[in-house]
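New here. Your pick:
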Amino acid sequence: MRPNVGVAGQSGGMASGLPEGLHELARFQDGILTSRQVLAGGLTRESIRWRLAAGQWQRLQAGVYAVFSGPPGRGAILWAAVLRAGPGAMLSYHTAAELAGLIDRPRALIHITMPSDRYLRRPIPGAVLHRSGRAAQAPHPALAPPRTRVEETVLDLAGMAATVDDAYGWITHALGRRLTTQALLRDAMAQRPRMRWRDDLATALTADWAGVHSSLEHRYVRDVERPHALPRGTRQAQARHGRRTQYRDVLYDEYAVAVELDGRAAHPGDLRWTDISRDNAAAAAGGVITLRYSWLDITQRPCLVAAQVAQVLGGRGYTGSRGCSPACPVPAMIVQPFGGPGPQKAARS
């Protein structure tokens, strides 16, 4: 697929005098051509030297030229790096994540994956090279500049994560932004039998975990909801607040109880009051009780969180909660239900 862009970063436009084929190729590649492409297109090495000396062109990488005089844009820089890496090379890891919208800010280093049987004599300035035996299966079939598929990008990043929570974060972030699906990620992971964190990540790609959009939500389900037999909540449940559509991290709809999870270290004041306003509106409109927990609560005190959620649910009729161990505080909390006794409801299967 041809990108719908012009030549990036040109202050004075693309240099004239290019044969039509090279002109079109340069437009496709954000104003970047390799020496091999230029020679195959009908120009000579002398013409390359003349244009460089005249300032019409500029060298961005060894044997790779910007056929314009202005500062190169991001697209031109990426094209130059991947073309310098040669046939079969593709943008990958954080750079592919940038192009896919998986991350919002470009990283300083450009990540490039190339076939495992190819070597470069010299490093590429500003780039990190990865070699892969799966390079033939990894590239996106249509997008330019060449880059790994979203699923390959997510699994690459998850596989190099320092912790399993960071690995979960790449999975849930991609799903939360609707860049891919659980099924596509499962298929891609099936091609990686030796992938790091494989067993842990496999659980995040089952139907039971659909709707989990962050590593903190994943921890809530894994360490709070399931071990303590809380009812299965609806993930990212839609709610109307005036004219706006908002989403609750976890909603126990039958019991009018919501759980919000906040991974930030601290709430900025304006956001805190927005959250309070939303909670008050939900309570006034539908009697929804909202419980809020931080990363520290979920990671360090999951049983205490479960005890409080179980107490509130018990006050609204849920009787299925249980402790995860003899020392778990859940049983002690649910004998004194918050809000007084209500109609008794067992867990739904």
